[in-house]
From TrEMBL:
<feature type="transmembrane region" description="Helical">
    <location>
        <begin position="21"/>
        <end position="40"/>
    </location>
</feature>
<dbReference type="Pfam" id="PF12698">
    <property type="entry name" value="ABC2_membrane_3"/>
</dbReference>
<feature type="transmembrane region" description="Helical">
    <location>
        <begin position="239"/>
        <end position="263"/>
    </location>
</feature>
<feature type="transmembrane region" description="Helical">
    <location>
        <begin position="364"/>
        <end position="382"/>
    </location>
</feature>
<keyword id="KW-0472">Membrane</keyword>
<protein>
    <submittedName>
        <fullName>Transport permease protein</fullName>
    </submittedName>
</protein>
<keyword id="KW-1133">Transmembrane helix</keyword>
<keyword id="KW-0812">Transmembrane</keyword>
<dbReference type="InterPro" id="IPR013525">
    <property type="entry name" value="ABC2_TM"/>
</dbReference>
<dbReference type="GO" id="GO:0005886">
    <property type="term" value="C:plasma membrane"/>
</dbReference>
<feature type="transmembrane region" description="Helical">
    <location>
        <begin position="311"/>
        <end position="336"/>
    </location>
</feature>
<dbReference type="InterPro" id="IPR051449">
    <property type="entry name" value="ABC-2_transporter_component"/>
</dbReference>
<feature type="transmembrane region" description="Helical">
    <location>
        <begin position="199"/>
        <end position="219"/>
    </location>
</feature>
<keyword id="KW-1003">Cell membrane</keyword>
<feature type="domain" description="ABC-2 type transporter transmembrane">
    <location>
        <begin position="19"/>
        <end position="378"/>
    </location>
</feature>
<dbReference type="GO" id="GO:0140359">
    <property type="term" value="F:ABC-type transporter activity"/>
</dbReference>
<feature type="transmembrane region" description="Helical">
    <location>
        <begin position="275"/>
        <end position="299"/>
    </location>
</feature>
Length: 388
């Protein structure tokens, strides 16, 4: 045990003195977090600005007036309506005094009679944005409801003996309570925010690079000839591999913990119980170390191993959603769920929602199962570097 600890401590001192480890394991991922959050963080929540709408409606047309009341009462976006005549409404849009003009033509209610048409013109200005699209959607929904009332009136004319007023039925349809209602809800508590996904994803992605500094040192020492001298010392050969694995594990745990902690402070995100998060970190680092050992076995040189490690890290990181959310279903979705980085992010989503260690059974099982399978593979795969 003393020999194992001595070799591990020596490797850790060497890596700490190597500035590239600190730069690539901590500084680069933090810089990427900052850049991505700065670029795409505003997409997480969109604040709608108030919009000026010029409205022209026929005088005395109650149904057209209901459209104006609907726009003025919107909760999603503040609509400042200005009622004027058609020519002035269009002029306000041209001059930039209004982002949108809604012009209800004369005879709107009367045009609802069967065989006739009711016209509403919507004119967009150069300053129209997403707020204008919201208003247009509301106008279309209002007209759809009016049309539904008109169809009901037409059916009444065909099936009843008495006369039916289409405009009255349409107005009743507009003012009546909807048959279906929607209520605002919240996203699942097991989902990370955009900033949270960014921090967790970058921590998981660069974990695979960080543990490589420890494991792939076997190949470097083999090329430099120091591995043969270590094996000539009076100790079990397995201690050398164990020391590299322990070094990689310590580097991975420390770097991932630092990234999660600093990322949480920088981007104001929380991952829940520190103890549960620590368990997830220990499990995902175990999966990362075991995977890099497979790379070390199949690569002939340290350069080949670094290339293979980079490819695997990018594939696993991107498929887990380290940069952008990935959504897949069916067989592909089940395969992506076996990704240890995806399981790590899923586990952090659970802890963020208030879950504890007892709720982390699935992600822990995926990460530890991956670690076991990769460890077995590293024992069964021929060591191409030694054969060379």
């Amino acid at each position: 045990m003393r020999q194992l600890l001595v070799m591990t401590a020596s490797d850790l001192r060497q890596h700490v003195r190597d500035k590239s480890v600190i730069i690539f394991a901590v500084l680069v991922p933090l810089a990427l977090m900052y850049v991505f959050n700065l670029t795409f963080g505003s997409m997480e929540s969109i604040e709608l600005e108030p919009i000026d709408v010029a409205v022209s409606v026929p005088e005395g047309d109650e149904l057209a007036g209901a459209l104006v009341d609907t726009l003025a009462g919107l909760d999603a976006v503040q609509v400042r309506t200005t009622q004027t005549d058609e020519e002035s409404a269009r002029a306000m849009v041209r001059d930039g005094d209004a982002a949108l003009a809604v012009v209800v033509q004369e005879g709107f209610s009367q045009g609802l009679a069967p065989g006739q048409g009711a016209v509403v013109d919507v004119v967009e200005g150069e300053t129209a944005g997403i707020e204008a699209q919201v208003v247009e959607t509301v106008v279309q929904a209002f007209l759809d409801r009016v049309n539904a009332g008109t169809r009901a009136a037409t059916a009444g004319v065909l099936t009843s003996a008495g006369p039916v007023d289409p405009a009255a039925v349409a107005q009743a349809a507009v003012h009546s309570a909807p048959a279906f209602t929607t209520t605002e809800g919240e996203a699942s508590t097991e989902q990370l925010s955009f900033s949270g996904s960014l921090v967790a994803g970058q921590a998981g992605l660069f974990l695979l690079f960080t543990v490589g500094f420890g494991v792939l040192g076997l190949l470097t020492e083999r090329e430099q000839g120091t591995l043969a001298r270590l094996r000539s010392m009076p100790m079990r050969p397995g201690l050398i591999v164990a020391a590299k694995a322990l070094t990689a594990y310590v580097l991975g745990v420390v770097a991932t913990g630092v990234l999660l902690t600093v990322g949480s402070l920088f981007f104001d995100v929380s991952f829940g119980s520190p103890l549960a998060v620590a368990v997830l970190v220990l499990c995902v680092v175990a999966a990362g170390v075991s995977l890099v050992f497979v790379v070390a076995r199949i690569a002939r040189t340290a350069e080949q191993a670094q290339i293979a490690q980079s490819i695997l890290a990018m594939v696993l990181g991107m498929s887990a959603g380290a940069f952008f959310p990935m959504v897949a279903s069916g067989l592909l979705g089940r395969i992506l769920d076996l990704n240890p980085i995806a399981a790590f992010m899923h586990g952090l989503g659970i802890t963020r929602g208030g879950g504890g260690i007892a709720d982390l059974g699935e992600p822990i099982a995926i990460m530890l199962g991956f670690a076991v399978l990769a460890t077995l593979a590293s024992r069964l795969v021929p060591d191409r570097g030694a054969a060379a």
